[in-house]
Amino acid sequence: MFDLEGKAALVTGASGGIGAAIAQGLHSRGARVGLSGTRVEPLEALAGELGERAHVLPCNLSDSADVAALPKVAAEAMGAVDILVNNAGITRDNLFMRMSDEEWASVLQVNLTSAMILSKGVMRGMMKARWGRIVNITSVVGATGNPGQANYAASKAGLVGMSKSLAYEVASRGITVNCVAPGFITTAMTDKLTDDQKSAILTQVPMGRMGEADEIASAVVYLSSAEAGYITGATLHVNGGMAML
Amino acid sequence: MSDIEDRTRKIVVEHLGVEQDKVTENASFIDDLGADSLDTVELVMAFEEEFGIEIPDDAAETIQSFGDAVKFIKEAV
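ok -> structure tokens follow
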């Protein structure tokens, strides 16, 4: 089950906690992985850890030219891109009334627009292969909203709408497009929270604990596999019951 | 019949699974040959590869019939 041997996967944001776990998960099932991210050092370290079948593909998703070039660079390095995981995401939290145009635009650019450009860039190869998997990492807050995160929530909800529309268009070509929506996961992003903040959050989580990056990776591995071939346009919520959608 | 026309027709016949004699100059991919909009995108991709040309999106939108395709490709190669 969930054998990904012979498949090539491009993972953005692979320098972060969740992205690295996703890359490890796909790699452990036999996939070749393209590790993309802004910071080269953690990517190199991860590639070293994974050994064979790992390629470091630095890319700054705030830079449109960099983003547009990435699918080609990835296909050249790995021979193809069969699986695309749009995981990279940034936050620029602020109260809506104080949110600057720049805070809004930068989050939309990295979280939503880059996912669109990358999806478009890998689509030709997937259409020809009559097989492809796109997994977009969204967030529970894209469905529930969150104070201080109008930009982030909009970008994540936008990904869901984009995924569903694209899923319609390419379903007949054996390409699926799905989302994984993490809740509160232990990462560098959530490490910044104080213990008080954490315990306040955990009162909202029936499971009574934060999620682990591996638990997101498992969902991505599943949606990337042949076994998930009849699932498209779906969002898999991995949030410990925090929002039962 | 030109070589370009033959090669273009072959792609259309193979991709859309239609009879060769249905692929006439005025045959519309969508209205006459049963293509859906995604098929037209794939046809353009196949033309690009066969002839080693690049067909930009705005030009691709004007290629509606077999005749349009042959005309465009003849000019581009």
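Residues 3-76 of chain B form a domain with the Non-ribosomal Peptide Synthetase Peptidyl Carrier Protein; Chain A fold (CATH 1.10.1200.10).
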